[in-house]
Specification:
The chain has 292 residues and is α/β, with parallel strands linked by helices. It is 44% helix and 11% strand. It has helices at residues 9-21, 39-55, 72-76, 89-105, 117-130, 169-176, 183-190, 205-215, 218-223, 233-241, 243-253, 276-285, and strands at residues 2-8, 59-63, 109-110, 134-139, 153-159, 163-167. Strands 3-2-1-4-5-6 form a 6-stranded mixed beta sheet, with helices on both faces. A hairpin with a 3-residue loop joins strand 5 and strand 6 (163-167). The longest helix has 17 residues, at 39-55. It is globular.
Length: 292
Amino acid sequence: MNRLILIDGFNLLSRGYFATAYGKSEDQLTQTPEGVYTNALRVKIQKIMSLINEYNPTHFAVTWDVKRDESKRRELFKEYKGTRGELPQPLIQQYQTAVKLFEATGIPQLTVEGFEADDVMGTLSHRWTNDKMGDCFIYSNDRDLLQLLNEKVSQIIAIRKEGDKVYTEEHFKTEYGITPDQWIDVKALLGDKSDNIPGVAGVGDKAALPLVQQYGSVDGVYTSLETLDAKYNRYRKKLIEGEESAKLSLQLVTIEKQIPELAEHSFDDLKLSLDYDKLQSEFNELGLRIRL
């Protein structure tokens, strides 16, 4: 049976970086004698190898974001991710090293101009499901990706002190009382501070999910404003004032599932065929002690 694992490359790399760089100056970070930083690489590659060993995927892809100012969402909303600071140079260097390492050792990776890693994973997982290829696991702690869950697509989420949890469509429906598609509507009302997505000012967790549970979608909420349940009276004015923002946010939080450039992309290109000797050689060169 085929099995695909998709990884949000920068999500994993940056988590590894900030976890190991906390409280340290750049010159205290692990690096080779040649000055190649490796603190985040070690975490990332060890995780990739453990996922491969645990889940035995037949297909695999590390997906990467384009630069923030090259994203189609930035074209839609120029303040998208505008509150984020510059990335540390050692993190950027390790991204570049990772790309070269994966090219050399046969770990498939994908970047698509104008799109983010979420969109690449959304398109690949959607096609994988439609083509009835088998199971698909998305490895990321980003809960925006929960909108991609279906009976064949699950998300592997790292939980502190507990380890990885495979979060399925059924887990989601039980926890939230909506379908994964409706998560988009909840996120559109809530917004997202980390991505600088506005949402509806004043509508928080206590209202966003119940509104979508009761009215089905952002559109359902707005077509029901005149007859809105009395328990939402305190939010009526906020919803009216935030309608344009809600509809913009809906576009920003929706993960693309049909990137044209990937419509004919062959899954054969994502078949996992690792050169373990080359991997060991590359790891040794970088001074990485990784369990294969």
